[in-house]
Amino acid sequence: MNQNNIQTGFNELELLAQQLDETGNYNIDMLLSSLKHMLIENNFFYGTLAKNHPEKDPSRVFYDLPINPQPHQLVYVQLGCGYAKEMRAPHWCYVLTSYGQKLTVIPLTSIKSNSGPARVPFEFDIDEGYGMKGRMHFDDMRSIDKMRVIAKKGYRSVCTPRADIEAALKKYMGL
């Protein structure tokens, strides 16, 4: 893509973002932050990791975290841009499984005084320790590349027994 195409593409995106902002129902700053994060991470992957890889083949480049999260921990994840009812932007997520360069995660939200009860079987409340509770959203579970993890936030333990979480997940999945 040449410079004119990049400029034209971003001009079109600007118009669409302005239209979305004018609805008054969408946090456009969060969208722009997610897009910026995605571009930074892709520049790092293709411009640094792939470029410096001996084969220079992106399909053979694998990113790994300095310390890998374990199942039954919480990690802070840039979920990125999403469709209307998908959870997006940075959120703490529960690590269900860790395999290779991917994690299966379940996003969490905080539970506020006006949150109401969990919508069973789609949601499940957990004890994060230190008097903090979180609400798991099984209906937003997904597989992510480890590059989405914001490692500088660290990882947190979960006090709710894994067996309780798995039982709630099985109920959600109809197993």
Structure description:
The protein is α+β, with helices and mostly antiparallel strands and 175 residues long. It has helices at residues 3-22, 28-52, 162-173, and strands at 73-78, 90-99, 102-110, 123-129, 132-137, 142-145, 155-157. Strands 1, 2, 3, 4, 5, 6 and 7 form a seven-stranded antiparallel β-sheet that branches. The protein starts with a helix and ends with a helix.
Outline the secondary-structure elements.
Layout: H1 3-22, H2 28-52, E1 73-78, E2 90-99, E3 102-110, E4 123-129, E5 132-137, E6 142-145, E7 155-157, H3 162-173
Antiparallel strand pairs: 1-2, 1-7, 2-3, 3-5, 3-6, 4-5
Concise synopsis of the structure shown:
The chain is an alpha+beta fold and 175 residues long.
Taken in chain order, the helices and strands follow as: HHEEEEEEEH
Rough outline: globular
**Helical stretch tally:** 3
Main beta-sheet strand count, sense and barrel state: 7 strands, antiparallel
Beta content comes to 25-35%
Q: How much is the radius of gyration in Å?
A: 19 Å
Estimated helix fraction = 25-40%
Question: Tags for this entry?
Answer:
alpha+beta; 3 helices; 7-stranded antiparallel beta sheet; 175 residues; 26% strand; globular
